[in-house]
């Protein structure tokens, strides 16, 4: 049986990731699963949710980073099962967010290599979309921005730089790469972005699917 594709959508806060993952999932249904990280429903996810939403709930940056990674490992076997059963998995955030957000904190010792370590061995996506909005004021005007930890323009700027550092380290960015597609979504309608994603996904689906997994 052909294995399914793991299609990941990454980006800064409020760039439309969740809308786009949902639209793509709807198009691939019923042969698809949607997974969002952090998954706030698990025990570990509930702790993460508390950290993100309650300002007086403090944890060392290292612990928070390991919780986000542990949250991915919680779902890793399920993920592999879906893909081997031929289902496509559409994913909202993953390892790249994990490294970009944690390393943007500039906590001593938490460089890219340190941040990647606990995620080593997780399945790599077959396609990775990065939604980039070059106009941060556009992002910050989106509904709900500022409600959670990390949602300040200054921090988002650092995270953006870190995302590109991660892409340089893991995906050879800016050299052409089969996996990574950076989409500039500034001033683009939801439909236009969805169409662009869908045409790239269709192109990938038309090709012979990779049989082997690659891992971080
Ligand atoms: N985030 C998300 C991290 O800091 N590390 C991670 O590994 C992941 C998956 O959590 F600010 C951050 C990114 C964001 C916050 O994400 C919650 P959503 O997509 O807004 O729920």
Automatic annotation (TrEMBL):
UniProt keyword list: ATP-binding, Kinase, Nucleotide biosynthesis, Nucleotide-binding, Transferase
Keyword hit for Cell membrane: no
InterPro entries referenced in this protein's UniProt entry, alphabetically: P-loop_NTPase (IPR027417), Thymidylate_kin-like_dom (IPR039430), Thymidylate_kin_CS (IPR018095), Thymidylate_kinase (IPR018094)
EC number: 2.7.4.9
PROSITE patterns listed in its UniProt record: THYMIDYLATE_KINASE
Pfam families noted in UniProt: Thymidylate_kin
Entry's family note: Belongs to the thymidylate kinase family.
Full protein name: Thymidylate kinase
Record organism: Zygosaccharomyces bailii (strain CLIB 213 / ATCC 58445 / CBS 680 / BCRC 21525 / NBRC 1098 / NCYC 1416 / NRRL Y-2227)
């Amino acid at each position: 049986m052909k294995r399914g594709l793991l299609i990941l959508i990454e980006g800064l806060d409020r760039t439309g990731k969740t809308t786009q993952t949902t639209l793509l999932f709807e198009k691939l249904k019923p042969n698809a699963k949607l997974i969002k990280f952090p998954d706030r429903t698990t025990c570990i996810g509930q702790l993460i949710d508390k950290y993100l939403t309650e300002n007086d709930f403090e944890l060392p940056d290292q612990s928070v980073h390991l919780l986000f990674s542990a949250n991915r490992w919680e779902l890793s076997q399920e993920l592999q099962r879906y893909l081997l059963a031929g289902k496509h998995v559409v994913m909202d955030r993953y390892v790249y967010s994990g490294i970009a957000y944690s390393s943007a904190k500039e906590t001593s010792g938490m460089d890219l290599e340190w941040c990647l370590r606990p995620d080593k061995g997780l399945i790599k996506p077959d396609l990775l979309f990065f939604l980039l909005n070059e106009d941060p004021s556009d992002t910050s005007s989106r509904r709900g921005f500022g409600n959670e930890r990390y949602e300040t323009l200054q921090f988002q700027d650092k995270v953006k730089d870190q995302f590109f550092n991660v892409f340089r380290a893991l995906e050879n960015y800016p050299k052409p790469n089969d996996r990574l597609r950076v989409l500039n979504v500034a001033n683009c309608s939801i439909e236009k972005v969805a169409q662009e994603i869908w045409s790239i996904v269709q192109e990938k689906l038309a090709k012979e699917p990779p049989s082997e997994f690659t891992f971080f």
